[in-house]
Write a structure and sequence with these properties.
The protein is α+β, with helices and mostly antiparallel strands and 230 residues long. The chain has two domains: 3-182, q2cbj1_9rhob like domain (Jelly Rolls), CATH 2.60.120.620; 187-227, DNA Excision Repair, Uvrb, Chain A, CATH 4.10.860. The chain is 33% helix and 33% strand. It has six helices and 17 strands. It has helices at 11-21, 35-40, 51-65, 68-74, 187-207, 211-227; strands at residues 3-5, 27-28, 41-42, 44-45, 76-79, 83-87, 93-97, 102-106, 112-116, 119-124, 131-133, 136-140, 143-147, 154-158, 162-165, 168-171, 173-182. Strands 1, 2, 4, 5, 6, 10, 14 and 17 form an eight-stranded antiparallel sheet that branches. The chain has a five-stranded antiparallel sheet with strand order 3-7-15-12-13. Strand 8 (102-106) and strand 9 form a beta hairpin. The protein starts with a strand and ends with a helix. The chain binds nickel (II) ion (NI). Residues 97, 99, 163 line the site of nickel (II) ion (NI).
Length: 230
């Protein structure tokens, strides 16, 4: 399932992010790639401990936490430390790859935990008219789709999918990227739950609370109980 989350960041957030990025200490993106990805990855990223990365990370996590659509579509259990990356100039592309399945995350307390990369999320930090190219292309069971969204919007796509970022030929593309370990590992089961949730919401808006919406809400939760790991 590939799904767009509109307005994860506000105009104020985006202005703040732009300010933070003016003097950001970009480094080589290959530092965090696995052996296969390293051969096709050519972009820049911010060190996790830089001030800009910390502030943008907090902004993005707040935005996602406010979004009922993110919760419904991703059913998040753990989120891997979001990264801020940039494509342009000599470091302008990331060829086709599949992300590593498991990442090791340093937690706030200094401990580590594993995060399974069930869902990938890209949050666009600058508007598409500032660059040419830089399209996220995702190939999965539904075919191949190109994604390029307004600043502040995000896209979710399955961690299992082959994907790339096409070369940026003018300007820079700046985005925040993160993985989610979902309570529901299967993309198919997550999609069914999300569709059921959205349809119950629409029914409730059209007809108010009825015996049927109550029943379907029960079905949603019983499926979630059957499929979720916490
Ligand atoms: Ni990737």
């Amino acid at each position: 399932m590939l799904i767009t989350l509109p307005d994860i960041l506000s105009p104020d957030d985006l202005a703040h992010a732009r300010q933070l990025l003016l003097e950001a200490p970009w480094t080589d993106g290959r530092d965090s790639a696995g052996p296969q990805a390293r051969t096709v990855k050519n972009n820049q990223q911010l060190p996790h401990d830089s001030q800009a990365a910390q502030a943008i990370r907090a902004m993005v996590l707040n935005g996602l936490n406010r979004s009922p659509l993110f919760f419904s579509a991703a059913l998040p259990l753990r989120i891997f430390t979001p990264r801020v990356n940039r494509y342009g100039g000599e470091a302008n592309t990331y060829g086709y790859h599949i992300d590593n399945a498991i990442r090791l995350k340093a937690t706030d307390t200094g401990a580590t935990e594993h995060v399974r990369t069930d869902v990938s999320c890209t949050v666009f930090l600058n508007p598409p008219d500032e660059y040419e190219g830089g399209e996220l292309t995702v190939s999965d069971t539904y075919g191949t789709r190109g994604v390029k969204l307004p600043a502040g919007h995000a896209v979710l796509y399955p961690g299992t999918s082959l994907h790339q970022v096409t070369p940026v030929t003018r300007g820079h593309r700046v985005a925040c990227f993160l993985w989610v370990q979902s309570m529901v590992r299967s993309d198919e089961q997550r999609r069914l739950l999300h569709e059921l949730d959205m349809n119950i919401l629409a029914l409730r808006q059209q007809h108010g609370e009825t015996d049927e919406t109550t029943g379907l809400t029960g079905t949603y939760h019983n499926l979630l109980r059957m499929w979720a790991e916490t």
